[in-house]
Amino acid sequence: MTSAELKLKTSETLDPGFQPASLFFQHYDEQASQNPESTRTILALARPDGTCFHHSMRLLPDGGEFSELNERFIERTLKFLLWMQGGSQIHFYGPRRLADYLRAIYSATGARVFDFGFIGQKIFREDLTVEHHDSTATLPPALDKTTTLGGHLQGCRIGFDLGGSDRKTAAVIDGKVVFSEEVPWDPYFQSDPNYHLEGIRQSLQSAAEHLPHVDAIGGSAAGVYINNEVRAASLFRGVTDANVFEGQVRNIFKDLAKEWNDVPFDVINDGEVTALAAALSLKTHSILGIAMGTSLAAGYCDPNGRITSWLNELAFCPVDMRPDAPADEWSGDVGCGVQCFSQQAVARLAPAAGFDFGNMPFPEQLVEVQMALLEGHTGAARIFETIGNYLGHCLPLYARFYPLKHVLLLGRVTSGDGGEILLETAREVLHAYYPELAESIKLHTPDETNKRHGQAIAAASLPALV
To answer: 349-371 burial, b for 16+ CB within 10 Å, e for fewer?
Structure first.
């Protein structure tokens, strides 16, 4: 497949070189369905606790003219699944050559060394492995685990959302928000965990001052949290000393719970709280919640209204197939979602829109662009049109992997008039390129308060009272 075949038919965006992964996969599926020699292949991602996810695909005959295309297809599919569902034990039913290819890339010396270490040791605390299978009979059985969280509104509660540029907090009494605030902070590169601890303490205390007492506390943050334990989190990426992480970070939320007399205290991934915010707002299911802020957070409520055990770290999932796509500065991979749906995306597009912000922090750049939009700056409008164009092409990609009926958009990037432009453009792209999905996927935004504080409010509903 040539680059020309994947390029958009319009040059009106600020990023005309964008090559949607949705079109790549669509084109590949069409070729595989028309080739009588194509075969079924399965990627199974397993975890140490026995959880296992199966993903079945049609694969073009391997070797010859399809070798490079098959490598690209299977590697990008695995990359998406690793960060969407998560698993440290990769089982592959298909050509052995491709299993060897994946094993070489996802290794300590391969191109995906970040994924190898992060998914493996940091999240699941074991090496990431790739095993080939000649038969589906030897694959580990599919086993998913879902849970029911949130929706508990009785009593006096605190909800918090820890982002990369601010801390959001809400005080809630019997489902009614009586206080909310947003406090700027800069946690990413702080090596001393006391910075994080004191900031969280301050936000909790601020909310508690507006409550007669505190019955429960719920929170969200980017990363992976298991039983309130920090497994891996961008919030603490500056804490590079392993001993400091183990001694002061891993159990930071358990320690905070003790400070609050062990009231029910739950902390989960910010994406999952995004999904909860969507479910609470829309009162429906099969929802993907997407929060565009410092990074890209996502969460999912399945058709039964349950939160899955999936990672839903769409910031690392590939959405742009061009070889020279913008690189994620953390993982090193190119074409990841964070570069299209975050403050980073706004900052990346700003020069092409006529802005010169120099070394201004990303959150401040976003504010400047939003202010310029209010003043009629056409370049500012084109930034949000371009992000909307990304979204319109990425929703079919997400629908490829998620049973999807609703999408709720949250976060700073979606605030104000820019969010309206973004949403309108995404709908136009869906109707133009994917008319069948334009009718089946509904896009939503909450009111302005919930756009900025919806996650903190939903987080407050996490714990059930004892």
So the answer is: bbeebebeeeeeebbebbbbbbe
